[in-house]
Automatic annotation (TrEMBL):
This is Integral membrane protein. The chain crosses the membrane at residues 94-114, 126-147, 167-193, 214-236, 271-296, 308-328, 348-371. It is a multi-pass membrane protein. Its main location: endoplasmic reticulum. Keywords: Endoplasmic reticulum, Glycosyltransferase, GPI-anchor biosynthesis, Membrane, Signal, Transferase, Transmembrane, Transmembrane helix. Residues 1-26 form the signal peptide. InterPro entries: PIG-V/Gpi18 (IPR007315). The keyword Magnesium does not apply.
Length: 379
């Protein structure tokens, strides 16, 4: 059933993508009315293509003003390495292989997501959560040349292993996941909260010494994995801030070149978008609303470990991310919340949510994927 849901959703999404591609004008990535594979590899997909073909620069490129320019170090190697291997085996070019890898990973993610939801929800709710996952407004990116499909597959697998307390298997999954999308530090925080909770609850839920040592080791390993890519960039380029400087280049168009100061970017973004003091107020309200959301009854039914992930990832985004149009994509790892949205049993509600999500796909494609002139809404 999950495979059928996934296949039906891909048909709907592909139809929407082709409809937009048909009216897409010439742009920096494609000519007018591009084919599917070409249209699915615009924007950051080009950076992943560069990584797959040429690797990473040993010398960081500079702007005319002497600042670090946008470059490939912002894009981790997990996804492009997989695509490159399949390119070598098949002899096919980047674009179609990237789409196939993303599609295959999205199917794997859907199958694992059902298993994850079944650990905390009954069958019908878990199945509808999969429907929402497959038709979500950002689901077109699951069949584009982006790392999101592969990352979500790995993240869902990691969360499933965590809920099943299969700590040993977490080591290789975390290692690959942390080199696919930035996630090691957020997952380390979730794991740390998991360990603290198990320690507190050990009277009713035994936490043997062996499991304590193993779980603590996974926490440390995840933290180290989260720092591995910045360390690799430092070793190869000779600049200790190579990775963070590269990431900061993408927000320079908004607030100029600045140092990375944790927990300030959302407030800077709020002021840039809404001015003072409204920007500060709105961001503060969003933080409070997110915190309260984690304690809603429907969210509490997801269990403590999934809520720990939501809290850990939310804190990570608050610490390092500057809000702009790609914020929607960066929120995709919050997918466990779909398990809360899926709980109402009303047929009218469920049909309405599916239609709303599909409309959201079209809105996201128009706003963030399609290119209209000097586009300032990157996906």
């Amino acid at each position: 059933m999950v495979t059928l849901i996934w296949a039906a959703s891909r048909i709907v999404t592909t139809a929407l993508v082709l409809l937009l591609a048909n009216v897409q004008g010439a742009n920096p990535w494609t000519g007018a009315s591009p084919g599917y594979a070409e249209f699915a590899n615009m924007w950051d997909a080009r950076w992943y293509n560069i990584v797959a073909v040429t690797g990473y620069p040993s010398v960081l490129p500079l702007t005319a003003g002497g600042e670090i320019a946008e470059n490939a170090w912002a894009f981790m190697p997990g996804y492009p390495v997989v695509v490159r291997l399949l390119m070598a085996l098949s002899g096919a070019p980047w674009a179609p292989v990237a789409v196939v890898v993303s599609l295959a990973a999205s199917l794997g993610a859907a199958l694992l997501f059902y298993r994850l939801m079944r650990t905390v929800q009954p069958h019908t709710v878990a199945l509808f959560a999969v429907v929402l996952f497959c038709v979500a407004p950002l689901s077109p990116v699951l069949q584009f040349g982006y790392a999101e499909s592969l990352y979500l597959f790995l993240l869902i697998l990691a969360l499933l292993l965590l809920l099943e307390r299969r700590y040993v298997l977490l080591f290789p999954v975390i290692a690959v996941m942390a080199l696919t999308r930035p996630s090691g530090l957020a997952f380390a925080l979730a794991l740390g909260l998991h360990c603290v909770h198990r320690w507190i609850a050990r009277a009713r839920d035994p936490f043997p010494v062996r499991e304590r040592m193993l779980a603590a080791s996974v926490v440390v390993f995840s933290g180290i994995s989260g720092l591995a890519w910045p360390a690799i960039a430092w070793i190869i380029t000779g600049s200790i801030t190579a990775y963070t400087d590269t990431e900061l280049a993408w927000r320079s168009a908004y607030i100029g070149y600045q140092e990375l100061v944790p927990f300030t970017a959302w407030f800077q973004g709020g002021v840039w978008w809404l001015g003072m003091p409204l920007g500060i107020v709105v961001v503060s309200v969003l933080i409070l609303a997110f915190g309260l959301t984690l304690f809603l009854p429907a969210v509490r039914r997801l269990g403590v470990d999934l809520r720990f992930w939501l809290a850990g990832y939310g804190l990570y985004l608050l610490a390092v991310f500057f809000p702009q149009s790609s914020t929607f994509r960066l929120l995709m790892p919050m997918f466990p919340l779909l398990g809360a949205v899926a709980q109402p049993r009303s047929t009218l509600y469920r049909v309405g949510m599916v239609l709303l999500f599909i409309a959201g796909q079209w809105g996201w494609l128009l706003l963030c994927w399609g290119v209209d002139g000097a586009d300032w809404t990157p996906p």
